[in-house]
Amino acid sequence: xxxxxxxxxxTGAASGIGRASAQLFAREGAKVVVAxxxxxxxLATVESIRASGNEAVFVRTDVGKMEEVKRLVDETVxxxxxxxxxxxxxxxxxxxxxxxxxxxxxxxxxxxxxKATWMLAHHAVPVMLDQGxxxxxxxxxxxxxxxxxxxxxxxxxxxxxxxxxxxxAADYAPAIRANAILPGGVITDxxxxxxDEDLEIASRTTPLKRIxxxxxxxxxxxxxxxxxxxxxxxxxxxxDGGFNSMHLLEGHLHDPNARKYL
Length: 262
Ligand SMILES: NC(=O)c1ccc[n+]([C@@H]2O[C@H](COP(=O)([O-])OP(=O)(O)OC[C@H]3O[C@@H](n4cnc5c(N)ncnc54)[C@H](O)[C@@H]3O)[C@@H](O)[C@H]2O)c1
What we know:
It contains eight helices and seven strands, in the order βαβαβαβαβαβααβα. By secondary structure, it is an alpha/beta fold. The chain has a single domain (7-191, 214-247), classed as 3-Layer(aba) Sandwich (Rossmann fold), CATH 3.40.50. It has a seven-stranded parallel β-sheet with strand order 3-2-1-4-5-6-7, with helices on both faces. Helix 3 (66-80) runs parallel beside helix 4 (103-131) and helix 4 packs parallel to helix 5 (152-172). The radius of gyration is 18 Å and the shape is globular. It binds nicotinamide-adenine-dinucleotide (NAD).
């Protein structure tokens, strides 16, 4: 049990990577706080964890709002007495180039995808420092390290997360470790149902010849959450089936079907 007697808070845990991580952390012994804006799906995550004999609670939270984030951290501590692993994973974004995206959409994307991690850490770090230890994990994206058309706000947010991860690592070491996961394409609720053609393009553009699963990202989150990564902080890991190691072939950049896997 890699997280025995620990308390983990996972945002965006109603589905996808967050749900798989919450479930895996619980199987490894953690008590889990499931945070999301979607109630029905979050309660299903909680039920699945309880059904396997582990502890979880749902705290409905819009991670783009400071007062809700503060309440989330407070309720985590009042429910379970401590906070060992903060996994800032939720995201929602507006597509568009710099000129196409509105100020409202820019602000909301930055709030949910970037400022949320600062707000979560702002409230969680003092709890972790009091305990003498803690771990922060952030879900970035390969958009953090590459530029693609029509993702101005999302890419700015994801790039900022890498810098914030380094700040958290520098400011709070040695008590707290902070690392980011940069997933490649993973089939989750973030996407519309992929077509056979989508999957074929993903297999052509990815050395491992397929799109990833939420569980494969969760395994890396467990590595960062646990003592398995005790000498790892302030860095990131691409979990992309090798996508970023391969030079894109002519034509892929202009193929709208390919773009969503980039
Ligand atoms: N799926 C991919 O291909 C992919 C690739 C790279 C990065 N990511 C990142 O992975 C993370 C998880 O996404 P996913 O793919 O599992 O998608 P998902 O849609 O399954 O999960 C995202 C969750 O965030 C929640 N959420 C949205 N806005 C919120 C808010 N304001 N407050 C609280 N919760 C909110 C959603 O309800 C949802 O449950 C995100 O940070 C995303 O940017 C995903």
